[in-house]
Design brief:
Layout: E1 10-14, H1 18-30, E2 34-38, H2 41-50, E3 55-59, H3 67-74, E4 82-86, H4 91-99, E5 104-107, H5 112-131, E6 142-145, E7 150-153, E8 156-157, H6 162-173, E9 179-180, H7 181-189, H8 199-213, E10 219-224, E11 228-233
Length: 236
């Protein structure tokens, strides 16, 4: 059994399989977490929007509202970490999950031990990021808000997902330094880099589009072919 990052952490588990839901609740409760259980996507979304949770476990194939749709709607209001669980483990569904703002994706079947490790990693990452100094925005005009995992320019919010925010924040802290894809996957996406995984490319594309949409042009994310990405200042 793992030692939880915080025994007061609240977890919402949205899972329609009664047996798996029961196992999840019992296991996480034994780990010291305060667990709320929901068997329906619409109910789970309502709980996630109305209450404060430290982590949400959400199945994709749910009655009411499916997990991907619920996640998309949740991200309009909340940046709470979400770990998707699904028997749909192919690349397309993983990318769909990350594109909607998932923090991690756990294909079924999985062991409760692996689930524990994933939860611990997410909660430790969140705790670590909250302790870090916010990136300097002096003379940049770009405002970073860690609480909502988003950036603003002239009072317009970009609407970043938590994963996109972490990628941009990491590039910002290493401005003018080329960061490799494996490094970005490990530090920002919190998982190992795989050659055919295009999630990071998708996140960068969304960051570029969203910064452009709010009129921010003082810095941009550029591709370093064969290596990764770099954030560079743009001369006036």
């Amino acid at each position: 059994m793992m030692t939880p990052v915080s025994t007061s952490a609240r977890i919402l588990a949205v899972e329609d399989d009664p047996m798996l839901a029961s196992h999840l609740q019992a296991h996480l409760t034994r780990c010291g977490f305060d667990v709320t259980l929901s068997h329906d996507g619409s109910e789970g979304l309502q709980l996630a929007e109305s209450e404060d949770f430290d982590l949400i476990l959400m199945d994709i194939l749910l009655p009411g509202t499916n997990g991907l749709e619920a996640l998309q709607r949740l991200r309009r209001q909340r940046s709470v970490p979400v770990l998707l669980m699904s028997a749909l483990g192919d690349e397309q569904n993983r990318i769909a999950g990350f594109s909607q703002g998932a923090d991690d994706y756990l294909p079924k079947p999985f062991s409760l031990g692996e689930l524990s490790v994933r939860i611990e990693a997410i909660l430790r990452r969140v705790a670590y990021e909250r302790r870090e100094l916010r990136p300097s925005t002096e003379d940049s005009g770009l405002q970073f808000d860690e609480g909502r995992s988003d950036v603003a320019f002239r009072d317009s919010w970009a609407g970043l997902t938590p994963s996109e925010y972490r990628v941009l924040e990491l590039l910002w802290r290493h401005k003018d330094e080329a960061l490799s894809k494996p490094f970005l996957y490990q530090q920002a996406l919190r998982r190992a880099y795989a050659q055919h995984d295009r999630s990071l490319d998708m996140h960068v594309s969304h960051i570029r589009r969203k910064l452009q949409a709010i009129g921010y042009a003082a810095a941009r994310v550029e591709t370093v072919w064969g290596r990764g990405y770099i954030l560079v200042q743009v001369s006036a």
